[in-house]
Write a structure and sequence with these properties.
Layout lengths: L17 H9 L2 H25 L11
């Protein structure tokens, strides 16, 4: 009976750091377009919430 063989990576992998995550997922050209879409949607959402919570939202309600 043969001994079980290890099928994992031959070298140890370094733990992911914030800098490596930013390079791989945020500023990488392959992911940049999707990240910009998320940023735009989040900005519009936050501005909408801020508008509704402010006193300016009273302009949306007609006064009869």
């Amino acid at each position: 009976m043969a001994a079980p063989q290890y099928l994992g990576p031959a070298t140890t992998q370094e733990p992911a750091t914030l800098i490596s995550y930013l390079k791989d997922q945020v500023t990488n050209p392959q992911h940049r377009e999707g990240n910009l879409n998320i940023l735009k949607a989040t900005t519009i959402f936050v501005l909408g919430i801020a508008f509704v919570r402010s006193d300016l939202s009273a302009a949306l309600v007609p006064v009869f």
